[in-house]
Design goal:
Strand content: under 5%
CATH class of the largest domain: Mainly Alpha
Helix content: 55-70%
Oligomer: single chain
Radius of gyration: 23 Å
Bound molecules: protoporphyrin IX containing FE
Number of strands: 2
Structural class: mainly alpha
Number of domains: 2
Order of helices and strands: HHHHHHHHHEEHHHHHHHH
Number of helices: 17
Distance between the termini: 47 Å
Length: 399
């Protein structure tokens, strides 16, 4: 990737001194009696962060658009976003306190970059995971804390595995559900979702609860760019997860709560992901294709071969969703948040709404993916049961 000298100097700073300042500040905060409060100590470090970041950004703003291509501009947006998110984390900015971001030069540059690239003008998850260029084996991060490395290592692995599952399902589309090669693709999708499960299980074991909650999560909070507050990044900001939802047919693009979620996340994804997701939203799901074929083809060999595999992919997808909600969200967000004083509990999510609003929404999403028997949301519980009923009893039980 080609960078101008100013962009390179900013990148060098982000990879070195910026990480050093954040790491030193986290060490200071972590030993305070109330870890959620930013103490007076560390003010010199915070001012260094602000002044050095601002000096880099001002030079880049003066340089203007040098058109080094999408990758360089996207990468620069990520660096800017990391700087703005760190300012937010250390209380140098606070969207609740201000009407507009005090980081005016950074806002101007981020808005210019975001609008010209077709993405949100803040750092997104891909900046820290799938599109985070490593130098000598080290990718960009906010701190040198073990919990941050563990969190982003496993987020990246989980996202890559979900993308593998989505790729396999997308490849079924031009073939049609009765094509013999679809069996292989469904097995590939199930294996990729099993990889998500393994990676999530390893994350669950390896991540330190307190270090994550107090020293990593705060960098993912919403912050203002110019006038507007942009919600924080979360590991779900890639198209693959929704491609799986839609292609399996477990979630539907005409369900208002679900499509609202898609509308809200479009700009948090790379343009190529936006395109893939838009395309999926127009497609008929595999479940609908199977239900349509059921009356005529239910007894045919191809149908009997494909349905158990399809049900296996659905089961795996439901299991990864349960694992995310019942293990990761519960252990690393919900439980530690309960220990906070009530007035601080509203401030722990990446998207902004309090946990009391976010958790039931995530639970509904989990239950759509599990095709759980719920009457208040349009799960496909009955439709999967119809498919299962078309199989001989032993296969149906295994599915
Ligand atoms: C410590 C680990 C994790 C925690 C505590 C966690 C927590 C959360 C929370 C709280 C949200 C809601 C966003 C918000 O705050 O507003 C969310 C969204 C999401 N996360 Fe995670 N997450 C973790 C790891 C992962 C991993 C490894 C993946 C896999 C790629 C993942 C996939 C998603 C997805 C897809 C969403 C969007 C909502 C959805 O479609 O389900 N998360 N996560």
């Amino acid at each position: 990737m080609h960078m101008t000298p100013n962009a390179r100097a900013f990148d060098d700073w982000i990879r070195d001194r910026f990480v050093g300042i954040n790491t030193e500040l986290e060490a200071l905060y972590f030993v305070q009696p109330d870890r959620n409060v930013i103490p007076a100590e560390g003010e010199a470090l915070r001012q260094e962060l602000l002044a050095s970041g601002h000096a880099h950004v001002s030079r880049l703003l003066a340089e203007g658009n040098t058109d080094e291509g999408f990758e360089a501009a996207f990468d620069l947006l990520g660096n800017l976003g990391m700087f703005m998110a760190a300012c937010r984390r250390h209380g140098l900015t606070d969207p609740a306190r201000e009407q507009r971001s005090p980081l005016q030069a950074a806002s101007a540059l981020a808005l210019h970059l975001g609008a010209s690239l077709g993405v949100t003008p803040r750092f997104a998850t891909s900046h820290l995971t799938t599109h985070n260029p490593a130098r000598d084996g080290v990718y960009k991060c906010f701190t040198r804390l073990e919990a941050e490395r563990v969190f982003f290592d496993y987020n990246t692995r989980g996202i890559l595995a979900y993308k593998r599952a989505a790729d396999a399902l997308v490849r079924t589309l031009p073939m049609g559900i009765s094509h013999p090669a679809v069996l292989q693709l469904l097995d590939d999708a199930a294996a990729a979702l099993a990889d998500v499960q393994c990676s999530n299980a390893a994350l669950f074991e390896a991540l330190d609860v307190d270090e994550f909650f107090y020293c990593v999560r705060p960098y993912l909070k919403p912050y203002r760019v110019g006038l507007q507050v942009y919600r924080g990044a979360n590991a779900g900001d890639f198209a693959g997860i929704n491609e799986i939802d839609l292609l399996l047919g477990l979630c539907r693009a005409d369900h208002p709560e679900y499509s609202q979620l898609l509308v809200d996340k479009f700009l948090y994804m790379l343009p190529e992901d936006q395109q893939r997701l838009r395309d999926c939203m127009r497609r008929r799901s595999l479940l609908d294709a199977l239900l349509e074929a059921l009356p005529e083809a239910g007894g045919q060999a191809w149908f009997q071969a494909v349905v158990p595999r399809f049900l296996e992919v659905c089961a795996r997808h439901g299991e990864t969703a349960s694992q995310h909600h019942d293990q990761l969200v519960r252990r690393f967000i919900e439980r530690p948040a309960q220990a906070l004083p009530e007035e601080e509990q509203g401030d722990v999510t990446a998207s902004g709404p309090p946990l009391s609003v976010l958790l039931p929404a995530l639970e509904r999403l989990r239950d759509l993916r599990r095709a759980a028997p719920r009457e208040d949301i349009p799960t496909r519980h009955r439709d999967l049961a119809r498919l299962r009923a078309a199989l001989p009893p032993t296969t149906a039980e295994a599915g």
